Amino acid sequence: MPAVQETVDRVRRIDVDQYRYGFETIIETEKAPKGLSEDTVRFISEKKGEPAWMLEWRLEAYRRWLTMTEPTWARVDYPKIDYQDLYYYAAPKPKKTLTSIDEIDPEILKTYEKLGIPLREVEMLEGVVRPEGERRVAVDAVFDSVSVATTFKEELRKAGVIFMPISEAIREHPELVKKYLGTVVPTSDNYFATLNSAVFSDGSFVYVPEGVRCPMELSTYFRINERNTGQFERTLIIADKGAYVSYLEGCTAPQRDENQLHAAVVELVALDDAEIKYSTVQNWYPGDAEGKGGIYNFVTKRGDCRGRNSKISWTQVETGSAITWKYPSCILRGDNSRGEFYSIAISNGYQQVDSGTKMLHLGKNTSSRIISKGIAAGRSQNTYRGLVSAHRKAQGARNFTACDSLLIGDKCGAHTVPYIEAKNSSAIFEHEATTSKISEDMLFYCIQRGLSQEEAVALVVNGFVKDVLQQLPMEFAVEAQKLISISLEGSVG
Amino acid sequence: MDAVVKTSGTERALADQFAAALPRLPGGKAVAAMRTRALENFACDGLPHRRIEDWKYTDLRALMREVLPPAAAPDKAALDRAAKALERHGLEGVRRLVLVDGVFVPALSDVAALEGGLTIRSLASVLADETVHELLLSDDAGAGPMFALNSALMADGLVIDILKDASPARPLHIVHVASGSAPASAYTRSLVRIGANVSATLVESFFAADGAQNYQVNDATMIAVGDGARLDHVRLMEDGREAFNIATLKSVLGRDAAYKIFNLTAGGAVSRYQGVVRFDGQGSRLETYGVNLLNETQHGDTTLVVDHAVPHCASREVFRAVIDDRARSVFQGRIIVRPDAQKTDGKMETRALLLSDEAEVDNKPELEIFADDVTCGHGATAGALDESLLFYLRARGLPEKDAQALLIQAFVGEAIEQIADDRLREAATNAAIRWLEARAS
Amino acid sequence: MPLLEVRNLHVRVEDDGNEILHGLSLTVNKGEVHAIMGPNGSGKSTLSHVLAGKPGYEVTSGEVLFEGEDIFAMEPDERAAKGLFLAFQYPVEIPGVATMNFLRTALNAQRKARGEEEISTPDFLKKVRKVADSLNIPQDMLRRGVNVGFSGGEKKRNEVLQMALFEPKLCILDEMDSGLDIDALRIAADGVNALRSKGRAMIVITHYQRLLNYIVPDHVHVMSKGRVVKSGGKDLALELEASGYAQFEEQAA
Questions:
Q1: Residues whose CB is less than 8 angstroms from the CB of residue A112 and which lie 6 or more positions away in sequence, other chains included
Q2: Inter-chain contact B391–C81, Cβ cutoff 8 Å?
Q3: What residue in C sits closest to B388 (Cα-Cα)?
Q4: How close, in Å, is residue B400 to chain C by CA atoms?
Q5: b or e along B45-64 (b: 16 or more beta carbons within 10 Å of the residue's beta carbon)?
Q6: A148: closest CA among A197, A202, A199, A205?
Q7: Maximal CA-CA distance, chain B
Q8: pLDDT digit string (tens) for C8-21?
Q9: Rounded Cα distance, A397 and A332, in Å
Q10: Chains B and C touch (3+ CB pairs under 8 A)
């Protein structure tokens, strides 16, 4: 699609060091007082105009959080986070209540324009003549703590698809939110998810009704702008019986010397015969060449294949963040359900990645597939951590896992930590992993044919990750491919 | 959840036992100081439990309800029972070194006419010596709580030295027999140092005399393989079905060394074989083969760390588990490639056969890699016996159990076949057959 | 008493419940060679699997008597010991189980089930060597894992070897010609012909008439859609070769 191609071009023009999205948007914001307390939680809930049950839900999570300790099992190392030194809510100060996209602060629009995110349906529709078969993407844009615009709402409404900021959904569709929120990732799930449950400010809500194939790709773009601000978005996607939806998520943040916290929760629910495809291109600011600054990305993503024959597929391209702690998982509860995890995780500089998945086989004849490609360069540490388990009653569970790591340079580390647990004799699990150096022969061949060292690395790495790139919607794949090249700049020589 | 758990009764019992035993344990002041340090290390975390990552699948706090008192020295009746068991499990053509209830028994051993360059001493006598080797004095806090406990309470074992170029004529066979005198625990440690260019075979066996039921083994074996040396190491664990066997292996390889380990676990109620093999010299090769044969409610854990600390070394790990009834098999393998350990070639392959719907297998094959010019990989599979193979065999007239046995033998045979010595390979095969026959009956 | 009697057999696949055999009947007497021909999907292989007792099929009605005994009351290994032998279309590879070891284990298991003595090692070796020589099977092939790394022709010869060794009463040859060139086919067929005798019957399952030039049947049955739609003498095979299966498919429908 032209818009995304433009993204890449625009991004190329924005010359900010190597991180092309590192600019800051100067706008007036409204913040909650610094620090975290019950009052902060009440403040957020009130700002969102939430019903009492939602506030109670948050407070319960907050109280739970107070009793928990930060997990330390991941292979990531960072100074202790002072949770009282953060802002938990920041919103662009609205001049008045917004009724149309034209009333959004032009600075914000400009930001998304710089990022190449099409917020204006008009532009999208006018997009000259679109090539045959090209898909459109409906976008929900989250700026710091709030959703600023959701496009194509009207057209989606006609199809019966609900796509709106979750803050709106809580007010407009409380019965759906109540029914599903926290049922995949319980409020007490883990330290960061519990924190999110207490203070999440916005995010996207999707409901695709029975038998509906969502007519376009849905997309959310997350942007952290404000200094010292944590971003805690919450996404909830429900595909009702026989429904299908493909959802894309992208993220960027300005370049700052201090670290910023991002602790999101994503919950997916697929009922009988439903399918959800969730793709992420994560490009939060990774910190500078010396390892200063960058986003701490502590994210809990989980899908519940609740119905028979349901399918959830995660595809992620992780190139950003100083620290990534993220395990998009599938609970294969429904008989014959299927989970997939396709991942590219690239680390450079001083980035630390600890990412992978969990495939929990509970139902009969469930299957899962994991393809993970880790690329470590610079002084980064890149860990794949994954769990595949078949429970007693998971007759006929199948898993195939292939996780490959590529090392570029001798100062980085690549690690593989799989947990394979079978409690059922009819389960068949196959797991393969390899770690190797980027092939000198391949690089030389490319260079001899006229490519620069960096181009050669990008080419070889793109070949290495091809299996996963193919899983992305086409427009995203192109962007991801360019991102991979950008993130590996300076990794050789 | 909070990882701090209050000291349980088991740990208090251990501390009391230590206090009572210390005056009687062999060794001078330096050894006693090390023992005390080691117990303190143990007491820090206490019995390992599932919240400790390394013990995730073997929660001793849940599995080990009681710690038995240290075994008394074996009496005449105990030695007779042990001698009888040796007739059954002994091997021909080896130099036999027998520990009964953790105490070295020269009368049952073969220590006459030692080849030149070979010395064999009991650990108790070495500890009593003024100049104890540093390897025996290291309390090594990093090796985990059960090794610390071994450091604190080790009472006897063997110290074997083979001088440069002095390859012994026969395999050395360290036999651990539980006599069944009384429910008790044995803390043993052996040190084997193989000089440069030596080619040697070491066998360890664990089994019980008739009537031995409830006992606990905590063993440590420390091995140094010299430059250009070659060691074949075979371990057969067929302890009694109520026994605990927690064993630690720590091996260090010099330059251009070749070290081959074969371990078979077919006995014990709860067992863990935890090893760390470190490459200290370039150009060396390690091969490890493991077989777990488990049924009823057996729990068998093999945890192996291969530490590539220097460049140009190769390691191969092959692990096979056969799990029946409600048994649980654990394999944790970690290949570490340190910075600068370039040109490392490390491979690990683990396969599990589940024979019952209540059997469980947990695999954790880890790669931890800090150097780039390496080829490392692992593969893991788990599943049931192949139905089409079973049917083929049955269509040729084999009853179900026989068809299964043939396929199981072939499955574990891939590891057993790697034992170079014919007699030892046969001994391992027989151990597997004993397990299969017990299963069929 | 016929050696094998199949009466109105209905069989479906357990997994998807599809019925494959819809009332198949067949009688085979000692000394006879029957060919069963039919297009793909007519149920030929299903018949061979069900007779040998392969799991995954459900017999919904009908019966099969082997020497007057209900075959479905027997485990697959009991059927083998009674003298029923299936030469597989795709013999499996069994890594780690040496062919020699496998042959002896299977032979002794069958003898044991029949209450016979185990065969002595020298007798066994003599016997195997004789049969192997006649089939052009080199000794080193027998030392390898069962069928591991064997070519298509070698696998089929290994099946015939077992047939000769176990001396069954009824041999079912499932698509023996699949994947074989003419030379390999001739060697295998010669092996089979050598085993023809008054006391032994054979069921030769094949898609093509070609095989029947080498193993000449006494009776030919045409299967279509799960039942026998026509039976005749060996000329029926030639007729089929000329006219194809189409006429019978219509007939069955």
A1: A118, A119, A141, A221, A223
A2: no
A3: C92
A4: 8
A5: bbbbbebbeebbbbbbbeeb
A6: A202
A7: 69
A8: 999 999 888 899 99
A9: 10
A10: yes
Of the residues C71, C79, C97, C155, the best mutation for testing chain B's interface (the one with the most B CB atoms within 10 Å of its CB) is C97
Tokens of C16: 């998807």
- Higher model confidence: residue C94 or residue B422? B422
The pLDDT of B127-143, averaged and rounded, is 72
Residue B350 has pLDDT above 50, yes or no: yes
- The closest CB to that of C77, out of B388, B399, B414, belongs to B399
What confidence tens digit (pLDDT) does each residue in B351-363 have?
Answer: 999 999 899 999 9
- Cα–Cα nearest to A41, from A253, A211, A201, A168: A201
Q: What amino acid is encoded at B129 in this protein? A: D
State whether B372 and A407 contact (CB < 8 Å). Answer: yes
Asked if residue B29 lies in contact with residue B67, where contact means CB atoms within 8 angstroms, the answer is no
**Chain B residue whose CA is closest to A434:** B377
Give yes or no for a contact between A53 and A108, defined as CB atoms under 8 angstroms apart: no
Q: Note the pLDDT of residue B307.
A: 96
Q: What is the pLDDT of residues B153-173, one digit of tens each?
A: 999 999 999 999 999 999 999
Q: Does A441 touch chain B (CB under 8 A)?
A: no
Model confidence at A124: pLDDT above 60: no
Tokens describing residue A303: 């899908």
What is the complex's ipTM, to 2 decimals? Answer: 0.85
Encode pLDDT of A307-344 as tens digits: 999 999 999 999 888 999 999 999 999 999 999 999 99
Contacts of B398 in chain C (CB under 8 A): 77, 105-106, 109
Partners of B391 on chain C (C-beta within 8 Å) are 52-55, 76
Q: Which chains touch B (3 or more CB pairs under 8 A)?
A: A, C
Per DSSP, helices labelled H in A221-281 are none
Q: Is A73 on the interface with B (CB under 8 A)?
A: yes
- Answer yes or no: pTM beyond 0.90: no
Question: What integer pLDDT is reported at residue C55 of this predicted model?
Answer: 85
User: How far apart are alpha carbons A432 and A416 in whole angstroms?
Assistant: 11
Token code pair at residue B290: 């493991």
Q: pLDDT tier at A8 (50, 70, 90 boundaries)?
A: very low
Choose from A393, A425, A429 for mutation: most chain B CBs within 10 A.
A425
Closest CB to A420 among B53, B357, B382 = B382
Nearest-CB residue to A423 (from B360, B381, B384): B360
A418 at interface of B, judged by CB pairs closer than 8 A: yes
Q: Do B378 and A423 touch (CB under 8 A)?
A: no
Q: How many Cβ atoms are within 10 Å of B212's Cβ, its own excluded?
A: 25
**Rounded Cα–Cα distance for residues C240 and B434 (Å):** 57
pLDDT attached to residue A123: 40
Tell me the C-alpha distance between B255 and B280, whole Å.
7
- The DSSP call for residue B113 is S
> Per-residue confidence at A488, pLDDT binned at 50, 70, 90?
confident
In this prediction, what percent of chain A has a pLDDT beyond 90? 43
Q: Does C107 touch chain B (CB under 8 A)?
A: yes
CATH of the domain at C201: 3.40.50.300
The domain in which residue C191 lies consists of 4-252
Q: How far apart are the first and last CA of chain C?
A: 33
Taking residue B347's Cβ as centre, other Cβ atoms within 10 Å add up to: 16
CB contact under 8 A, C55 and B391: yes
Question: How many domains would you assign to chain C?
Answer: 1
| CB proximity list for A444: less than 8 A, separation 6 or greater | none
Q: One-letter amino acid identity for A319?
A: T
- Measured between CB atoms, does B410 come within 8 Å of chain C? yes
C150 touches chain B (CB under 8 A): no
Cβ contact B371–A410 (<8 Å)? yes
User: Would you call B41 helix, strand, or coil by DSSP?
Assistant: helix
Token look-up 């062919």 returns C99
